[in-house]
Specification:
Layout (H helix, E strand, L loop, with lengths): L7 H12 L2 H12 L11 H14 L3 E6 L13 E8 L6 E7 L18 E2 L2 E3 L3 H20 L7 E7 L10 H6 L10 E4 L7 E6 L1 E10 L14 H22 L15 E9 L18 E10 L5 H18 L4 E10 L2 E2 L5 H14 L4 E5 L5 H6 L6 E3 L14 E3 H19 L5
Parallel strand pairs: 3-6, 3-7, 7-15, 8-14
Antiparallel strand pairs: 1-2, 2-6, 4-5, 5-16, 8-13, 9-11, 9-12, 10-11
Helix pairs in contact: 1-10, 2-4, 2-10, 4-10, 6-7, 8-10
The structure holds zinc ion (ZN).
């Protein structure tokens, strides 16, 4: 049987169909926000996965629930339950996969609305995860359901997944599934991750990250006679001064070809995550600390690096500063430990998924698409490194800066526009009639 006649009419009808689902997109987002999938610890993953699976099963998807047993964080109390739903088209062809993480970060302070209430007001849906990224997940579902309801024939298959733990590295989510072939050909060919990076922008990837711990070791002594010991805190102070003087100016010089946003992240950056020296912290109300020269001082570093840099160079740069200090101060003693690292990921701007989204953005918004890269990492790293699938980007509604903030929201018009763009791009990639 031949597919429906291709052409712009099919696409326009589909766009109208999606626009008519404005209320449904808002309701679905609100329903997802009301399932408080806070991570850590990984609350309510099971009801959220089942909610998605049941909705998609009712639409004809075959649904798999995949618990990452044995993965970090998985327990009977907090099962790491992922859901993958797949619907086959009319014949052999590629598979387009929409992947969203279902976890959200803790609400924190400063909210003027209930973070898990899903309030709809002034054209926005409010709540923790509205923007990052339950709004994007809802938009992808509305997009795919509209294709199905329109009866548009397409070859291949479409998948929608809801995965866990992105906010804590994605090891029980996309990484775990990628290790089992869920993000590799021949099962999947193109992946769109609806993270909040603006409705007119395609996010090609992210910078790399290296977390490490520097421990400076001193020698304990009585605090009234500090000259008898070696202060680890003063040693760390010397290291921090060296970083400030020698490394920060160098990092600021390193601009990347990666289109990282915001613009000030389009370079190498370094953050001191935490610093502690001496006795365990006390706030003064529990009495006085004892008089001691600190024999330990620990610093956690968060270094974000570029495709133009290698992890080895990034590590060597820190080690060289430490070694230089040791040469200057014979009593300076340190240890440098790796904590976590992820290399940068960058999909080529002429990759099929990028071109399809570019065309769809142009068609729906009438404006040229932007290409961006994310300052922080997200699950694309696992698709690229474990799945070896490089036709993967982030594209979704929402304003990046609202992620993890109080009074987080998603604009409903943006959800509708991005759902239209996702639907058009999916059909384009599948080679269906609206392409
Ligand atoms: Zn996210």
């Amino acid at each position: 049987m031949a597919a429906a006649t291709p052409g712009p009419d099919v696409k326009d009808a589909l766009f109208r169909r999606i626009a008519a689902r404005r209320g449904e997109a808002a309701d679905l987002t609100a329903a997802l926000i009301r399932i408080p999938t806070v991570n850590p610890p990984g609350d309510a993953y099971e009801p959220c996965a089942r909610f998605l699976g049941e909705r998609l099963a009712a639409r004809g998807f075959s649904v798999e629930y995949l618990r990452a047993e044995g993965a970090v964080g998985d327990s009977a109390r907090y099962p790491r339950l992922n859901v993958v739903a797949r619907i086959e088209g009319d014949g052999p062809g590629p598979c387009v996969h929409f992947n969203s993480h279902i976890d959200v970060v803790a609400p924190g302070e400063g909210w003027t609305v209930d973070p898990f209430g899903g309030a709809v007001r002034d054209g926005r849906v409010y709540g923790r995860g509205a923007c990052d990224m339950k709004g994007g997940l809802a938009a992808s579902i509305v997009a795919v359901e509209a294709i199905l309801d329109a009866g548009i024939a397409f070859p291949g298959a479409i998948e929608i997944s809801g995965t866990v733990d992105e906010e804590t590295g994605g090891y029980a989510g996309v990484a775990w599934l990628a290790e089992r072939g869920y993000f590799s050909p021949p099962r999947v060919d193109h992946v769109i991750i609806p993270e909040p990076l603006y409705k007119d922008a395609v996010c090609l990837g992210h910078r790399g990250v290296w977390w490490s711990e520097v421990e400076v070791r001193g020698r304990i002594a009585h605090g009234s006679m500090p000259f008898l010991g070696v202060s680890a805190i003063r040693g760390m102070g010397a290291f921090l001064a060296k970083v400030e003087r020698e490394l920060y100016p160098r990092l600021a010089q390193r601009r990347t070809r990666m289109p990282v946003i915001p613009d000030r992240a389009r370079q190498s950056t370094l953050n001191f995550n935490s610093l502690h020296g001496g006795l365990p912290e006390q706030d003064g109300r529990d009495g006085f600390p004892s008089a001691l020269v600190a024999d330990r001082c620990r610093l956690v570093l968060d270094r974000r690096y570029l495709v133009e840099e290698s992890e080895d160079e990034v590590k060597r740069e820190i080690r060289d500063l430490l070694e230089a200090l040791k040469a200057e101060q014979p009593e300076f003693d340190y240890e440098l430990r790796d904590l976590w690292s992820v290399p940068p990921t960058l999909t080529e701007p002429d990759a099929p998924v990028v071109r399809a989204l570019d065309r769809a953005i142009e068609a729906v918004l009438g404006a040229p698409p932007r290409h961006v890269a994310s300052p922080g990492t997200y699950d694309q790293k696992h698709v690229a490194r474990i799945g070896h699938l490089h036709d993967c980007v982030a594209y979704g509604p929402g304003i990046l800066e609202l992620a993890h903030q109080p009074d987080e929201y998603i604009d409903i018009d943006d959800m509708v526009a991005s759902a239209q763009i996702m639907a058009a791009a999916a059909l384009d990639l599948l080679g269906g009639p609206a392409s």
